[in-house]
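Checked the freezer inventory, then went back to the computational side. Two predictions to log before the end of the day. The first one is the construct we discussed on Monday; recording sequence and tokens without edits.
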Amino acid sequence: MRHKLILCVLCLLFAVSPVQAKELDRAELNFAAALISMSTYGAELNLLARQWLQDLGWVVDSHEYATALAEARVHILAKKLPDDEQIYVLAFPGTERKQDALVDLRMKRVVFAGQSPAEFEAAAERTDKEASMPLVHKGFHDYTQAALFSEKIPDFANLTLGEAIARDLRNHPSYQLYLTGHSLGGAAATLAAARLADLGVRPSQLRVITFGAPAVGNTAFARTYEKRMQLTRITIDGDPVKAALQSLSNYVQFGEKVVWESHLGRFPHDMTLYLDEALRHYQDAHSEQDHPYLVTGQRRQVQGLIYVAPFDFQVSDLLSADKRYMERVARGILNSAYTPIVFGTTNGDIYQEARKLGAKYILYEHFRGQRIKKEENNFRLAMEEELYDIDGNVLSFQSYSTTARTLTPIEAVGYLVMQAEPERSAKLKGTT
């Protein structure tokens, strides 16, 4: 079954014309990559990112491959764009399991060479290592090999997943592959792109975006592969992980470096902070009237206009600067989920304006946010949602709350709106 799922996703991608070598908007691309990287983690609250991606029309296919050296996960994501092209992403999770930590600590250097999975492994077992050879972190190498080159797939003529992807990209030289990941995942994405380059994929076809990723290899590795992929390394100022192996193992970073300043006083390596900053950058660069490629979904057709009353936000002064981001996240999730929908602006009679617009439903969203005592950077956020028909009959009332311990306050608002989606959608009569 697993092989058939992979086959279906890859066939879908290459049957519907994947994204060709064109430039997508950078802020949108970084936001989509951050959302995807966040979704690769297994924590319950990261369901926010996964559900958000699904609502935006992304198909997600997750797989795990184990060898004696690593237990690797790889996620294949696909989205059909408005112009009928298809974007194709490989994403790798960061460190979250004990086995991942062991991979991180396996810092011995191995030779990085070869043009087939067998040659990759043979090179890594070599003992005659010199500084002039491309050398990489053994743990990261083992993880990448397990994820892409450890298991032959009968439906792909007994090629491994990595070989099948490389073959299809070689056969379609105008297509692009995006690779992304956070921390360990970013290291795996970089090495995966290097392996695909060794298998004949062109530099213009390999677009890598990493978040807080460490250096993966020595100077010889960096000089060999820096022109064989398009690598963007996004870091938050003060993130210690990005430079850890540079000082410990004399590894070298390469690619375009982008540095963000965090707006929150937290450990600057958390993926939640990278997603928070990516979302801020995206909103700052785009108006709500823009029609993005990557973060617009297939909306559910509702039989009747939904009128959303102006949001009621009552938050601590410490959160007031982020209120505009919170409001836009809530609007964006609702707007991506349903059509027809309109967001009210009146401070007067809500029902009068809703009837004037021909609405069938009225939705109220109330948000509260206060700092938790004795926890400097933590907040409790709560949402109450009321859904009425135009005659004032209550269709649903929901209340949810969460803390910003594992999410940022902006992300927490999105999480709360998504928590209410199943019951809300059940009460809204629609066709799809």
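The second is the one RB wanted added to the comparison set:
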Amino acid sequence: MSATGKIKAPRLSLINITAVGFNNSMRWMYTGGEDNSARIWDLRSRNLQCQRIFQVNTPVSCVCLHPNQVELFVGDQSGTIHLWDLRTDHNEQLLPERNMMIQSVDVNGIGTMLGALTHKGMFYTWTLKSVFNKPSRIYPKMKLEAHKTYALKCKFSPNSEFVVTTSADQTAKMWKSSDLNEVVTFTKPGQQWVWDCAFTSDSEFLFTCSSDSVVRLWRCDDGAPIHEYAGHQRAVTTIAFQDGRPKQDAEITAACNSPPPTTDIAVVVDDDVKS
């Protein structure tokens, strides 16, 4: 990390980064990119070092870390989900359906369910069973047409009771994770593509970001909009949220689609954003 808090990435890695995340101890970071790889980066050294590389055959579209901190789920544009066991480098593959790109993957907070969303709006879930010192066992559970148009993101609530999917159809939809029955739809005229979402830690509120340059806060029980955060000039495509300490305001950060004028960044979001 530099003094400004930015990660100095190697200049030779000038490829589109499609996923980024950190382990609980903040000792390492994982990324996925259009160079057909997922990577582990050591954050303990002053200069960012790539420790390990997991290579696939097509561009990586999404990556998610299991709560056990030792398994990564890697989705790619061929429609394959790879389970990468960081302890042994063992990997397994899931192919929900052919000719569908895996757009987003997520694991619920207790590590018992995997969800995956394809670009065609199909949402799949699997039951995860933990086995001591072995990769999680994966069992197909349910399949749902969550959206009829291009889908973008899936995210489980912190209490694991719900999952939200977002889409180009101008909606985010919340489903019960147990049976995938629809609970509520978050939508507002003119909000355009809904790119990303983030729950509050109590699972009672949801943030969304969309192509109309606005971040919105919604109430989860009835889908009512609470507040709008405006100010970006272009589509807001990524959002990260962290609850503040008790009696303090929550903090919200959103990244718009224009990358900063420097290569000292951890995430590059394409400038060519659809609406």
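For RB: The first strand starts at residue 17 and ends at 22. The chain has a mean pLDDT of 87. Let me know if you want it refolded.
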